[in-house]
Amino acid sequence: MISSYASLLQRSVARRVVRSTSVVSAASTNNKSSVQHSFFRSMNSASTIVEDDESDYGFGKSIPDNKIPEEYIEEGEETIGEWTGCTRKFLAPLSVKQSGTEILNNPLFNKFTAFKSGERDRLHFRGLLPPRRVNMKIQKERVLQEIRAEPSMIRKHIILEDVHDRNETLYHRILVDHMVEMAPIIYTPTVGQACKEFAMRYRRPRGMYFCEEDRGHMAAMVYNWPEKDVHVIVVTDGSRILGLGDLGANGMGIPIGKLSLYCAAGGIAPHRVLPVVIDVGTDNEELLNDKFYLGVQKPRLQGSKYYHLVDEFIQAVRHRWPNVLIQFEDFSSDKAQKLLNKYRDDILCFNDDIQGTGATTLAGVLGALRAKGELPTSLGDQRILIAGAGSAGIGVAQVLYQAMLEHGRSEEEAKNCFFIADEKGLLGTERLNQLSPEQAMFARDTDGGLTLNEIVNKYKPTMILGMTAVGGLFSEKLIRDMGKHCERPIIFPLSNPTIKAECSAEQAFEWTNGRCIFASGSPFDPVQLKDGRTFYPTQCNNMFVFPGIGLGVTLCGAKTVTDRMLYVAAEALANYLTEEELAQGKVFPDLAMIRDVSKKVAIAVIEEAVRQGQAPRLDEKALANLDAFVQKKMYDPVYVPLIEKRA
Fold first, then answer.
1. How many angstroms separate the Cα of 630 from the Cα of each of 21, 389, 598, 599, 611?
2. 187 catalytic per annotation
3. pTM of the full predicted structure?
4. Which of these is catalytic: 156, 171, 187, 500?
5. CA 451, CA 424: separation in Å to the nearest integer?
6. Residue of 258, 586, 600, 632 marked active site
């Protein structure tokens, strides 16, 4: 069976190569796909129209485009009455158990004022809404106008989350259509402040919380969650939220934000995601004494009590949802790697800070090498300085190291490329008893304890990656010295939020006279130097990778997320860059293309899963055209008719 799958996979790849010209053309013009999917049918059924010569129409018969009368293919939007701006084309109705105000109070079903008269009658809320029917386009314009009139980013975030709490379809439509504008509002850099203010702005329950008092009850607790088909869980213990440290239960803002990106960028339907906080207490004195804090006001659990609680949670969610992907998010460095090591080979999980950051950074580095006119295999020729030896820094080093092995370098050759420093300086073998096994792997035999400046001047690195959460760590002297030793230094200050960035885009370009290749964890505006040259910094953000990984592994039914899947995800992202983007100094694609990027990443992950025999959910038809299969399964936020479920 696997060999036949491999044969089909080759044909699928060949077909996509043939179609690549049209795909690139469509991407460059940013046209919306005509593929539209009903609300809850995504990832389970076909869309109403699929752009594919092998799609099924009617009773499973494939009808060539040239056999369909033109009047059947083209159907415009209505221009008068309550259907103005809407289409009357068939959309399979969604059967719901609720009616009346229950629907109006359920964000998964609520359409605000877009309910047509027929729905208002059959669902029993005629008279409960203003009489005018307003379509989604007008609703979206009203929300955008309110957001754009507000100068405060946190206020913009609150406005958008208010929509999220009342109408998930409209919320995700806004994100899909305006990702460049909305991403900084729902995630970095604004989400950090949103987490700090989480208790004060708490309005409506979203997600689940597990704490020590729940020990022994978690197997039953998970059935309190109303949705039966959860595909992705993002879980945090709140111990290391971005670069802000221990925020305890306030860290719930991170899983909520990540899952918004899973839905909008990765095409996972919103009823199939679950944000979770494992509340083991907090060591943040401010929160322990805050009368408004909503989490457990006790010191953090440590040792076996901590790991047993986490393990019960893992077993409980996998008992109810055996195929769920669990993404570990913002766990402290002393816990993150241990949890990943325990579960990664047995269940479908990954750590975004370690593996997601590593894969995204690898993609950026490969893009930077392309911008320098070098091949990906030259990665093993680089001298890589990593500032920060926590879970993110070591995770990036591990992924880059694995990529070098993929390119044919020996283990010794690959290790010699790395210079990793923490607050005590360069990691050296004299500190082995103080280092984790993952850190010890990169400890150098000589020069342990060298400062960043000393490392730059002695070893002349070609790239520097910052994951310290120490704002301004990359001094002018450090960057100028790198510029002396390297014609085009790669500078990636990756810490979040913006105030924690090791340097700004303006500083990096100015101090290297525009010669550096730059990407950052948080967004920066274009930089214009005094000589008139303009540079466009891109954001090295995990949102380019994790939605596609999640989409891919859940569609194919993978049992684990392997290192090889992470590598091909990074490769797919790096290959998405156009020559025009590289010429502008960009090392990541335009954020407006993120849904297509996620699709390409998902396809790469699925292809690797097939090669590894980890794709039990795919049949021969899906494998014959993975591009169409993945596109068809991606959630598209549109209003569909609702009908009351009858007994």
1. 19, 37, 10, 7, 17
2. yes
3. 0.86
4. 187
5. 8
6. 258
